[in-house]
């Protein structure tokens, strides 16, 4: 196969892997960059070595990585332990402002020999190998000679493809890197084209302008399945979607747990997912994607029970319901039928007397700003999505619901939950971590902070004449 045309829903913020973490780059960057570790499958929270040949915990605060030999960057520069040390230190530079600075802030890298590196942490970090999946490796000498900005213009990695052209908000082209340590791919060139509207991506696929398209709606998937030359592949994605409760406003009715539980009972989660997403999602019974490490399969979502919802509202002093602001933050087209999902929730809540005033936003970062919350008046609900290729409860429930976390935009605080989340955050015993997260999720569910949750499946359409594609992390690069 000589070339491949790939339609994606949104563009990338920039080309430096240490700065950008958009969903577009989750597809594009693994072609250009490698990390020390990688996830071989999108249904397994464990990670495998990539540029590292192996890794192990030496003690509670030290991880050792044996590195792959003979790896070259696209500019010919060699990969070694000094490069690993440079990469971690680059992501600790407050002036550079890397995306994952908090994940690597407390790491000291020791170069044992040219192909052995040790990472020493101030406290135990049980998921450091998982977090390194998102920390792709960049060339040391190239950046030292040219400055950080060079990676925004001409990025270099060790991946199977190298960048040849980038037109902002239009397309990006990569070509096969023949010296790739993992062997040549079957594809010589890939062009990623920005096509924001889902129906237009499908049209491009049907016309032959695209060979593969990401972000296909469930309805379009059904139409493609009926075409002899078209294929559909869906793999469980990283993103979880919820309606979240914001506890900033102390006068809001949602301060009462009975009200929050009533909201959860009022929404028919299963009907929404079946109707709107046609089986391309898995229900989340609490505040964690069900495929992530730490989820508890024994937990069940709130059942649809509007009668119970009304009883709880009456007991809380709201027999006639109330009005509340529902903040809606779009995911940029990566999750299908977001608007319909929001409208369905509003409809269910109206049936028990809760009237929602929907306010649209472009970024969830608004909610990290306390001044924003203070100025805008009584708020209570918001459409919230969270995803990470780390695939661990640490990045969803610890980062978002630990009381003093900078990402706790919900102002949720529960001492018992904090103790459990801290345990999961700091001990290496994976079974104990799983138990701690499971118990925390049970309490969070009872507190009814997030509801109507699901983990979305990534839906791809592709031309069966051009490629045999499988929507899975480990096979995405092979086509």
Write the layout of secondary structure elements.
Layout: E1 3-8, H1 23-32, E2 37-38, E3 48-49, E4 52-59, E5 62-67, H2 81-90, H3 101-104, E6 107-113, E7 116-121, H4 128-131, H5 140-146, H6 150-153, E8 161-167, E9 171-176, E10 189-194, H7 198-207, E11 212-214, H8 218-225, E12 230-245, H9 257-266, H10 269-277, E13 281-284, H11 306-315, E14 322-329, H12 338-350, E15 354-361, H13 370-375, E16 381-386, H14 393-401, H15 415-426, H16 430-447, E17 450-463
Helix pairs in contact: 9-11, 14-15, 15-16
Compact overview of the structure:
The chain is α+β, with helices and mostly antiparallel strands. It has 16 helices and 17 strands.
């Amino acid at each position: 196969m000589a070339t491949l045309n790939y339609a994606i829903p949104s563009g990338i913020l920039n080309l430096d892997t240490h700065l950008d973490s958009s969903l577009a780059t989750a597809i594009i960057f693994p072609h250009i960059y490698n990390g020390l570790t990688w996830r071989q499958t999108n249904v397994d929270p464990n990670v495998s070595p990539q540029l590292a040949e192996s890794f192990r915990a030496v003690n509670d605060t030290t991880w050792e990585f044996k590195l792959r030999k003979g790896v070259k960057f696209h500019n010919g520069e060699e990969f070694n332990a000094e490069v690993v040390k440079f990469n971690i230190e680059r992501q600790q530079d407050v002036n550079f402002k890397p995306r994952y600075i908090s994940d690597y802030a407390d790491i000291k890298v020791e170069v044992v020999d040219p192909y052995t590196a040790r990472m020493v942490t101030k406290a135990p970090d049980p998921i450091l190998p998982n977090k390194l999946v998102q920390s792709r490796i960049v060339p040391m000498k190239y950046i030292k000679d040219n400055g950080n900005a060079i990676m925004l213009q001409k990025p270099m990695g060790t991946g199977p493809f190298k960048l040849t052209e980038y037109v902002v908000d239009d397309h990006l082209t990569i070509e096969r890197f023949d010296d790739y340590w993992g062997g040549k791919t079957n594809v010589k060139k890939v062009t990623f084209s920005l096509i924001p509207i889902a129906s237009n991506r499908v049209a491009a696929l049907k016309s032959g302008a695209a060979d593969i398209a990401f972000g296909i709606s469930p309805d379009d998937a059904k139409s493609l399945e009926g075409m002899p030359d078209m294929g559909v592949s869906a793999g469980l994605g990283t993103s979880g979607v919820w309606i979240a409760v914001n506890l900033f406003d102390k006068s809001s009715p949602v301060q009462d747990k009975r009200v929050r539980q009533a909201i959860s009972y009022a929404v028919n989660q299963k009907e929404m997912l079946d109707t709107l997403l046609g089986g391309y999602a898995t229900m989340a019974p609490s505040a964690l994607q069900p495929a992530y490490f730490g989820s508890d399969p024994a937990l069940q979502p709130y059942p649809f029970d509007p009668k119970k919802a009304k009883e709880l509202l009456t007991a809380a002093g709201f027999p006639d319901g109330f009005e509340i602001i529902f903040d809606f933050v779009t995911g940029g087209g990566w999750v299908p039928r977001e608007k319909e999902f929001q409208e369905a929730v509003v409809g269910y809540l109206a049936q028990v007397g809760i009237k929602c005033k929907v306010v649209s936003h472009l970024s969830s970062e608004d909610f990290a700003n306390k001044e924003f919350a203070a100025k805008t008046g009584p708020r209570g609900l918001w459409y919230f999505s969270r995803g990470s290729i780390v695939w661990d409860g640490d990045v969803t429930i610890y980062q978002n619901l630990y009381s003093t976390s900078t990402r706790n935009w919900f102002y949720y605080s529960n001492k018992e939950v904090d103790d459990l989340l801290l345990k999961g955050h700091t001990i290496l015993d994976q079974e104990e971590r799983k138990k701690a997260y499971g118990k925390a999720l049970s309490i969070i569910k009872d507190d009814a902070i997030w509801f109507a949750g699901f983990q979305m499946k990534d839906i791809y359409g592709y031309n069966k004449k051009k490629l045999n594609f499988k929507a899975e992390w480990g096979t995405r690069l092979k086509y």
